């Protein structure tokens, strides 16, 4: 019985199993990482939209025209953001919307919105 090797478990056999397990779990880990990055991108986008809406509402309260308000919003929220100005009684509002950026954000239709209200400081 010389030259016959045992087919039982040993250190050489577990190496293939680890490689197979790694190959199976790698896509799941990468998907989880992509989702975490997309969530972080959505959070950053939401913060930018809220800041743009607040700054637009302040400009609107000072009496700036809607074109100026939209320019301020696009400066703070990004060039793809859109702003809508509306009056509801004595209150003025600025609504800013944009999509989440990044590779996963472009494939998932995430539309984020921020809205800020103010009263006119000009009295008219």
Topology of this protein?
Blueprint (H helix, E strand, L loop, with lengths): L10 H52 L3 H12 L4 E7 L2 E9 L3 H5 L3 E9 L5
Antiparallel strand pairs: 1-2, 2-3
What does this structure look like?
The chain is an alpha+beta fold and 124 residues long. Helix content is 56%, strand content 20%. The chain is built from 3 helices and 3 strands, in the order ααββαβ. It has helices spanning 11-62, 66-77, 103-107; strands spanning 82-88, 91-99, 111-119. A 3-stranded antiparallel beta sheet has the order 1-2-3, with helices on one face. Strand 1 and strand 2 (91-99) form a beta hairpin. Helix 1 runs antiparallel to helix 2.
Order of helices and strands: HHEEHE
Helical fraction: 55-70%
> So what's the overall shape?
rod-shaped
Low-confidence stretches: none
Strand order of the largest sheet: 1-2-3
Brief account:
Helices cover 56% and strands 20% of the residues. It has helices at 11-62, 66-77, 103-107, and strands at 82-88, 91-99, 111-119.
Notable characteristics:
124 residues, alpha+beta, 3 helices
């Amino acid at each position: 019985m010389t030259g016959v090797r045992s087919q039982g478990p040993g250190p050489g056999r577990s190496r293939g199993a680890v490689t197979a397990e790694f190959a199976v779990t790698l896509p799941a880990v990468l998907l989880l990482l992509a989702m975490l990055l997309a969530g972080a991108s959505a959070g950053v986008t939401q913060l930018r939209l809220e800041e743009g809406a607040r700054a637009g509402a302040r400009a609107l309260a000072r009496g700036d025209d809607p074109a100026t308000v939209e320019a301020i919003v696009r400066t703070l929220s990004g060039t793809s953001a859109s702003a809508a100005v509306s009056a509801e009684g004595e209150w003025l509002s600025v609504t800013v919307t944009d999509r989440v950026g990044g590779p996963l954000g472009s494939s998932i239709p995430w539309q984020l919105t921020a809205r800020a209200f103010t009263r006119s400081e000009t009295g008219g």
